[in-house]
Every structure is written in structure tokens, then in C-alpha cells.
Design brief:
Layout (H helix, E strand, L loop, with lengths): L1 H15 L11 H4 L1 E2 L13 E9 L4 H11 L5 E5 H6 L1 H9 L3 E6 L10 H19 L5 E2 L8 H9 L3 E3 L3 E2 L9 H9 L7 E5 L9 H18 L3 E2 L3
Parallel strand pairs: 1-6, 2-3, 2-8, 2-9, 3-4, 4-5, 5-6, 7-8
Helix pairs in contact: 3-9, 5-6, 6-7, 8-9
Length: about 240
């Protein structure tokens, strides 16, 4: 009985181990989790970062972000939520049509540590099918909700050819106390080439109205990156 219990605990520990990568970046390479823009072709390649948005599409936040990026002819990465795509597939298609890179976030925005492996697999498959149906392309990138992965999620992504990406800098724009100034500061102070930056174009899983602060901060974020000689890259 004791051995069975020890075995169960050990299996659960291995299953949950990837969740530590959210707080311990040094674990990420060993788990096959990426968090940097792929290296350029050579010394003369321009310095770049990736700007990523989670939790959309959102009926107001996403169009506002798309408009700001379009004005500057910039491309970003959008990790989409299947249930949000279901509500507005045309908006998901608009993101792809504008040339932005599409990633898979989830079908329902839940902590994966609360789900059994079959539930994780079902959620990811449904999200992938939903996103592909709306955008015309199967997502090539994956990011788990809250940045918390488990073994089932990583295995599913690897088996289906998706690269799992977290981030190196975030604006903490989902928090109730966030302001445009705090978002800009957190995201750009000390930013380095190949950083992956995290923002949110939706507020369905965060503080109400948080997308408005993100949109207000975005021009200053882009200005700060330009001042530092950093362009935007996809992943």
C-alpha cells in the first residue's frame, strides 16, 4: 500500500515538474521550452525581440492592438484561446490575414495542474482544431495558461509539432493595479535582443478593462524598443 502511494506521488511529481519552468527559467531548455527569439543569421542580423499577446481574440482589445501594429507595419505573435475564437472566428482570421504569427494557448483558460492528462489532450486538440478552422493554418507555437505546463501538455505539443514558448519579460498588464507607465517600465527597462515580451489583448481572464491599459501602453513600448534599436521578430 505504501509503495503504491509512493509510486502515485512520484508519477504526479513528474507530471507536474514542467510547471516549475514558469518560475525557474534555467529548467526550460531541459524541458524543451523556449523563451528566446531564434538567433539571427549572423553578426550583421538586426537586433530583435518578439512581442506576444495572450488570451484573445477580444472584440475590442484585439482590433485596437491590430490597428496600432498596422500603423507601424509590425508583426507580433498571438496565442489564441479556442473558446474566444469560437465567439469571433472572423477576428481570429483577421489576425492571421494581417501577417501575425498564430499560437495556441488553450481551449478553456485553466490551470493545467488541475486537469488529468486526457483532459489536457482534449483541450489542446479542440483548441488546435478551432484555431485552424478559423485562421486556415495549424498553429506552430504553444503557450500554456499562466505559463504553467505539465508533462501531458508538453508531450502533446511535441507530438503535434508545436514549439512551446514562455517569455523573458512581462508587463504584468493583467493586474488590477497595472498602469500604462508600469507596463512600459516592466516590459522595456533592461530589455535585450532576443527577449520574448508578454502582453494581453483581452481581459476575459484578468482585471476588467486591463486591455485598455495595454493598448494605452503599446505606443510607448514600441517607441522604447525603437530607441534601443530593437525590431520585432516572430518566433
Amino acid at each position: 500500500m505504501k509503495l503504491a502511494l509512493v509510486g502515485t506521488v512520484a508519477v504526479a511529481g513528474v507530471h507536474a515538474l514542467p510547471a516549475l519552468a514558469a518560475l525557474a527559467p534555467r529548467l526550460r531548455p531541459a524541458l524543451g521550452i523556449e523563451d528566446r527569439v531564434p538567433a539571427g543569421a549572423g553578426p550583421g542580423a538586426p537586433a530583435q525581440v518578439a512581442l506576444t499577446f495572450d488570451d484573445g481574440p477580444h472584440p475590442r482589445g484585439t482590433p485596437a492592438v491590430l490597428e496600432l501594429l498596422a500603423r507601424r507595419e509590425l508583426r507580433a505573435v498571438f496565442f489564441l484561446v479556442g473558446e474566444q475564437v469560437d465567439r469571433d472566428p472572423a477576428l481570429a482570421a483577421e489576425i492571421a490575414a494581417a501577417g501575425h504569427q498564430i499560437g495556441l494557448h488553450c481551449q478553456r483558460h485553466r490551470n493545467l495542474l488541475r486537469l488529468a492528462p486526457p483532459q489536457v489532450h482534449a483541450d489542446l486538440q479542440r483548441a488546435a482544431d478551432t484555431i485552424a478552422r478559423a485562421t486556415g493554418e495549424m498553429p506552430a507555437l504553444y503557450r500554456p495558461p499562466y505559463g504553467i505546463a505539465n508533462l501531458a501538455a508538453l508531450s502533446w505539443a511535441r507530438r503535434h509539432g508545436l514549439r512551446t514558448f514562455l517569455w523573458t519579460r512581462w508587463g504584468r498588464d493583467w493586474e488590477p493595479q497595472a498602469t500604462p507607465a508600469s507596463i512600459v517600465s516592466l516590459l522595456t527597462e533592461g530589455v535585450r535582443p532576443r527577449d520574448v515580451l508578454l502582453l494581453h489583448d483581452a481581459d476575459d481572464y484578468s482585471a476588467p478593462g486591463s486591455w485598455e491599459r495595454t493598448v494605452a501602453a503599446l505606443p510607448s513600448v514600441l517607441d522604447a524598443l525603437t530607441e534601443r534599436g530593437l525590431g520585432l521578430a516572430t518566433l
